[in-house]
UniProtKB/TrEMBL annotation:
A GO molecular-function descriptor: ATP binding
Pfam families in the record: ABC_tran (PF00005)
Keywords: ATP-binding, Nucleotide-binding, Plasmid, Transport
SUPFAM superfamilies (alphabetical): P-loop containing nucleoside triphosphate hydrolases (SSF52540)
PANTHER family per UniProt: IRON ABC TRANSPORTER, ATP-BINDING PROTEIN, METAL TRANSPORT SYSTEM ATP-BINDING PROTEIN TM_0124-RELATED
Alphabetical list of InterPro entries matching this protein: AAA+_ATPase (IPR003593), ABC_transporter-like_ATP-bd (IPR003439), Metal_Ion_Import_ABC (IPR050153), P-loop_NTPase (IPR027417)
ABC transporter domain residues: 8-247
Protein name: ABC transporter ATP-binding protein
Keyword DNA-binding included in the entry's annotation: no
Record-linked CDD domains: ABC_Iron-Siderophores_B12_Hemin
Length: 337
């Protein structure tokens, strides 16, 4: 079934840097955004994520190719019609003066209101619904300038929702937020895509969250190629590791995490159960040990002994047993070996 809302054909994006010279950032992009999907646009710094979002939003003419929104060329749509179909949330903090959160969200109804911007009861209901959908009814009467970054981001999303678009584009909506707020905003956007059947595309540097929450990933590499697929498809194809390969850091396909290159310190046996063993393994890997949970014949072994009150680490080296009550002390001991 094809639920494509926004499609691109052989799109080349970039900048006209002089009369004769063009800087092409990415080329030959033929993709589509589908109804009800949350798509995360990932890529290293400078890959062209913001350029792509602006090009899809009709704010920056492409160097070649086309962007179609419900079949219409986006660059030929009249601005009011475009605003009814597409909303854009940018990262920059906008100076909105003394506006209340409610008033800011109600500006999202601008494409539908009369010349004076009067809201009908139906507009008011949509504004109320948008604020409620992002869980921000308690913020409605507050001044936007007094809101925290996370609170303001919710209000900006509500404003975009109030526009009743079919596509929402967001440039780094989780920048400046702490981890719980980032998870909350990403989950909210995924839920909104499902409930409103909108297509939502957001750029982010939150690779871990995108891997866990996105229906689809658009992965833009620095050579201007866009890889598209389920997050797991891009991990399995190696596109993820290749795109983020850099000196000192590598993507671990097995764990889905990025690891720093650390000098290899040797292999170590680890035994034990429960959550303490998980964090013991992480601590040992962090400092460069290869952990073995099966073999028992290695020169160094660690046993994690835990009860409801205490965790102890018993380390055996050359038949001598040393006991520590913190991973910090255990690692310190291993670093001296
Ligand atoms: N106005 C401009 N004129 C010419 N080149 C530009 C302009 N704006 C950006 N660029 C270049 O285009 C490339 C892509 O920039 P863009 O901001 O789209 O990347 P990004 O993936 O969003 O980066 P980041 O993750 O750092 O925000 C970069 O090489 C940048 O230097």
């Amino acid at each position: 079934m094809n639920n494509a809302i926004l499609t691109t054909h052989n799109l080349n994006i970039g900048y006209q840097i002089s009369r004769k010279n063009v800087r092409c950032v990415a080329r030959d992009i033929s993709v589509c955004l589908e109804a009800g999907e949350l798509v995360c646009l990932l890529g290293p710094n400078g890959a062209g994520k913001s350029t792509l979002l602006r090009s899809l939003a009709g704010m920056q003419p492409p160097i070649g190719g086309e962007v179609r929104l419900l079949g219409d060329d986006i660059y030929k749509l009249a601005p009011p019609e475009l605003a009814k179909r597409l909303s854009l949330v940018l990262t920059e903090k906008v100076d909105v003066g003394m506006l209340s959160a409610y008033t800011l969200v109600s500006l999202g109804r601008h494409p539908y209101t009369d010349w004076w911007g009067n809201l009908t009861p139906e507009d008011e209901a949509i504004v109320h619904w948008a604020i409620k959908s992002v869980g921000a009814l308690h913020l409605a009467s507050r001044q936007v300038s007094e809101l925290s970054d996370g609170e303001r981001q919710k209000i900006m999303i509500a404003r975009a929702l109030a526009q009743s678009p079919i596509v929402m584009l967001l440039d780094e909506p989780t920048a400046f937020l702490d981890l719980p707020r980032r998870v909350e905003i990403m989950q909210l956007l995924r839920q909104l895509a499902r409930e409103t059947n909108q297509a939502i595309l957001l750029s982010t540097h939150d690779l871990d969250l995108a891997l866990r929450l996105a229906d689809k990933v658009w992965l833009l590499s620095t050579n201007g190629i866009l890889h598209v697929g389920a997050p797991e498809d891009l991990v399995l194809s190696g596109a993820f590791a290749d795109t983020f390969a850099s000196e000192g850091v590598e993507f671990d396909v097995a764990s889905g995490e990025f690891h720093l290159h650390t000098s290899h310190k040797g292999e170590i046996n680890v035994r034990g159960e429960g959550i303490a063993i998980v964090w013991t393994i992480r601590a040992l890997q962090r400092v460069g040990f290869k952990v073995n949970q099966i073999q028992n014949s290695l020169p160094i072994s660690v046993e994690v002994v835990s009860n409801s009150k205490q965790v102890l680490w018993k380390i055996t080296k050359n038949k001598t047993v040393y006991t520590y009550d913190s991973l910090y002390e255990l690692i310190k001991f291993l670093n001296y070996l």
